[in-house]
User: Which sequence fits this backbone?
């Protein structure tokens, strides 16, 4: 195949004719590819990461008994917790079941052990099924302690407002139940718990005391019941609403609803950020094309003689153009392969800087950015089109 | 002679200069757009997060412990303390008054509601401001209400107007009791002796929360019904804040005076809370951690990400401009050879080319700036709904960047050009 051999030989000569310019074009394409692939990788990753960052807002979906808004009498069965899937895609779903009850509480202060417990006060108690409630109801810990020595008391956490009203501190213990200290007191409806921490939520939770679910269920004679289930569903706004719909279908006896304050806010923020990232990728690609185009214009000017000669000795315009397109594509491939690799490494580092965890390299990003670079290189070779109009005679006469 | 050479170079090859100039202008346009969007976007993003609603909750300090489950307070009306409504204008007198985006006082009571053709229902009644003009101590007014603090509330129909017998009902309540817009309801509190004059339903509220099951009236109406004139029980405040860092998390009472001033003069959520506590006597101001902490965490991340993206587009713009100016120097080898053959020193040639590039940089940079501002407006409008304003910093950075990048881009080929031997170039080799 002498024809093919000749083709590549010419390409090689074209590429090595001007090292400086080759370097400029490769640099432009490589840098463009690097930035594009870094941004693309970061975009895919950042969107995913952003949805996991929304975890910080706590629960975004609640499951309540049907027709129960505004009343505490209706409850759900605890088995509902097992019916909620634990993952969606690769992301974990956090959930907690809560049971509320208003009961009397008396404080036994650890600082004044000889004192009798304080006067009983009615407080809302919230029984939690798992410790994930701390993730689902974001708070700031004001006081905390570890139980000293062996104790058979269950642990509880008080909201900041409760603590202030009752003058309660970590390490105190609480008596919980109905008719505390009165003659009617029923031992089966009383319990004691150790205050492990005091947290500030800034919401109604500040007025609650969080205790073990079983304890409340026992005191209230509501074994296996829950007032409400709170969930944090990760994902994009579409994924969340699709998930809510499917969950509602599988739990016909309950009411599954988004906490609109968070789902809508998250959707808005998510759309803004992904809009910015996409706009930047597009801009970078345009800039790279511009860069290559500027370099290629000069290539076109310089190659007038070569093209004139090729045409004079019988090269068809199409073959000549194919030659230059092959050159551009080759440049795009080289720049893309090198640049995209650098870009993906770059994005891993950037991901670490922004989100604290290295962005996972997405394999799909690599071919996509190489392909984009080749397209950009070929589009950038647009000025070479002018070579088709060259008339050999005019070139050889030295005319412009 | 020098000027003539420069002018000649521009007029002889206008097409080339135009292309290099265009590349420069476009590159700088992108740089301008990226810079002005991200300079402006910090504030924009913070206000974007306000769509999550209030981040501060004000309650009376002397209040008894609320027995609140699922948004319904089970205390009797008379239990607990109230705060005076007349103090609310002072919120806009604190140091960070401009960061207070909105606030809405709330009075919540259990009321008896009689829908048309129905029976009396025990229903939570919420009194608040929809859109209220608060008169400030300095004589101006400030428009605020739940539409500012709870932007996710959707209303079908319209909000009630103040000082009229109008109300809005929650969507669940409306569905359960067959209440439609335009219907009438009677609302009473305490022991009902006679049916009060009915209120007109002007809208149906969907909030996704406990309000869906309530009847909402204007604050003034609720105060009359609760017999607590000019008082409120809860106040939601939405404030623009700076994400809390380690310094912001420190206890202000342990700070040295200079540090305390710095802490006070930074819009941390905790310092705004303290300033509100100072103007509202008897109030307890708590940070809604769920909103504030989540907002802070994400805002910090997103800001870093945005600067990074801006930096990437600046880099791409610099490369584009550098490459095009490098290319424009490379192409002029013959000319440089001729100049040197005629006796010009490398310095003179370099100076001439640098002057040309700089001229191009200023013209292209200026054009690019104008174009970039348009682009920034477009992008800002599209993504954030608000166009970024003019910033002198961006203009300075753009022109400076254009000049530096073109010079740097030309420097490498120029250095090589200064080493050219004129003879082989002129021979066409």
Assistant:
């Amino acid at each position: 195949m002498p024809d093919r051999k000749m083709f590549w030989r010419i390409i090689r000569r074209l590429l090595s004719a001007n090292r400086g310019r080759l370097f400029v074009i490769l640099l432009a394409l490589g840098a463009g590819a690097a930035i594009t692939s870094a941004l693309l990788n970061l975009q895919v990753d950042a969107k995913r990461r952003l949805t996991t960052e929304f975890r910080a807002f706590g629960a975004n979906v609640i499951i309540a008994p049907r027709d129960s808004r505004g009343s505490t009498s209706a409850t759900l069965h605890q088995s509902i917790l097992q019916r909620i899937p634990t993952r969606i895609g690769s992301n974990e779903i956090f959930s907690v079941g809560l049971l509320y009850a208003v009961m009397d509480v008396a404080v036994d202060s650890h600082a004044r052990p000889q004192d009798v417990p304080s006067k009983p006060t009615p407080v809302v108690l919230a029984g939690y099924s798992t410790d994930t409630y701390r993730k689902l109801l974001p708070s700031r810990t004001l006081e905390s302690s570890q139980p000293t020595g062996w104790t058979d008391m269950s642990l509880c956490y008080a909201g900041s407002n409760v603590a202030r009203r009752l003058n309660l501190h970590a390490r105190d213990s609480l008596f919980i139940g109905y008719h505390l200290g009165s003659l009617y007191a029923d031992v089966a409806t009383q319990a004691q718990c150790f205050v492990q921490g005091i947290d500030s939520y800034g919401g109604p939770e500040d007025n609650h005391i969080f205790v073990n679910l079983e304890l409340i269920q026992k005191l209230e004679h509501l074994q296996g019941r829950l007032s409400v289930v709170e969930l944090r569903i990760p994902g994009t706004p579409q994924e969340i609403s699709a998930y809510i719909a499917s969950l509602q279908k599988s739990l016909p006896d309950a009411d599954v609803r988004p906490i609109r304050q968070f789902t809508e806010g998250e959707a808005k923020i998510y759309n803004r950020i992904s809009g910015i990232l996409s706009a930047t990728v597009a801009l970078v690609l345009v800039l790279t094309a511009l860069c290559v185009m500027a370099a290629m214009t000069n290539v076109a000017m310089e190659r007038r003689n070569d093209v004139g000669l090729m045409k004079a000795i019988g090269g068809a315009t199409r073959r000549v153009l194919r030659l230059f397109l092959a050159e551009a594509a080759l440049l795009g491939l080289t720049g893309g392969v090198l640049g995209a690799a650098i870009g993906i490494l770059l994005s891993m580092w950037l991901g670490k800087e922004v989100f604290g965890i290295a962005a996972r390299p997405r394999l799909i990003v690599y071919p996509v950015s190489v392909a984009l670079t080749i397209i950009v290189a070929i589009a950038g070779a647009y000025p070479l089109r002018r070579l088709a109009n060259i008339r050999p005679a005019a070139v050889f006469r030295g005319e412009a | 002679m020098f000027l003539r050479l420069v002018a000649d170079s521009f007029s002889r090859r206008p097409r080339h200069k135009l292309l290099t100039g265009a590349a420069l202008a476009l590159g700088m346009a992108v740089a301008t757009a990226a810079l002005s969007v991200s300079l402006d976007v910090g504030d924009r993003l913070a206000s974007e997060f306000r769509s999550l609603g209030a981040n501060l909750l004000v309650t009376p300090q002397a209040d008894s412990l609320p027995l609140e489950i699922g948004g319904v307070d089970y205390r009797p009306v008379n239990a607990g303390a109230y705060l005076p409504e007349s103090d609310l204008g002072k919120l806009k007198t604190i140091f960070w008054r401009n960061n207070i985006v909105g606030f809405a006082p709330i009075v919540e009571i259990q009321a008896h509601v009689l829908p048309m053709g129905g029976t009396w229902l025990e229903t939570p009644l919420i009194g608040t401001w929809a859109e209220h003009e608060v008169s400030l101590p300095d004589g101006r007014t400030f428009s605020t209400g739940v539409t500012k603090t709870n932007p996710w509330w959707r209303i079908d129909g319209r909000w009630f107007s103040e000082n009229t017998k109008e109300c809005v009902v929650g969507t669940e309540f409306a569905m359960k009791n067959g209440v439609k817009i335009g219907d009438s309801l009677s609302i009473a509190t305490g022991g009902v002796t006679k049916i009060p004059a009915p209120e007109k339903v002007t809208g149906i509220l969907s909030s996704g929360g406990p309000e869906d099951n309530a009847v909402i009236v204007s604050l003034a109406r609720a105060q009359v019904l609760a017999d607590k004139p000019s008082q409120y029980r809860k106040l939601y405040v939405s404030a623009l804040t700076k994400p809390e860092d380690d310094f912001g998390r420190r206890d202000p009472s342990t700070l040295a005076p200079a540090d305390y001033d710095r802490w006070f003069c930074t819009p941390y959520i905790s310092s705004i809370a303290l300033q509100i506590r100072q103007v509202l006597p008897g109030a307890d101001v708590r940070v809604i951690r769920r909103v504030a902490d989540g907002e802070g965490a994400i805002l910090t991340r997103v800001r870093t990400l945005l600067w990074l993206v801006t930096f990437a587009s600046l880099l791409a713009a610099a490369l584009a401009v550098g490459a095009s100016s490098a290319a424009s120097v490379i192409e002029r080898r013959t000319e440089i050879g001729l100049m040197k053959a005629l006796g010009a020193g490398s310095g003179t040639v370099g100076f001439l080319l640098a002057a040309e590039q700089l001229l191009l940089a200023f013209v292209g940079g200026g054009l690019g700036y104008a174009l970039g501002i348009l682009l920034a407006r477009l992008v800002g409008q599209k993504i954030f709904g608000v166009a970024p304003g003019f910033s002198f910093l961006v203009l300075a950075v753009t022109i400076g960047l254009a000049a530096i990048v073109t010079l740097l881009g030309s420097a490498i080929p120029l250095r090589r050009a200064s080493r050219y031997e004129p003879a082989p170039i002129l021979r066409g080799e």
About this structure: Chain B touches chain A through 81 residues (CB under 8 Å). The radius of gyration of chain B is 33 Å. Residues 55-287 of chain B form one domain. The first strand of chain B starts at residue 56 and ends at 60.
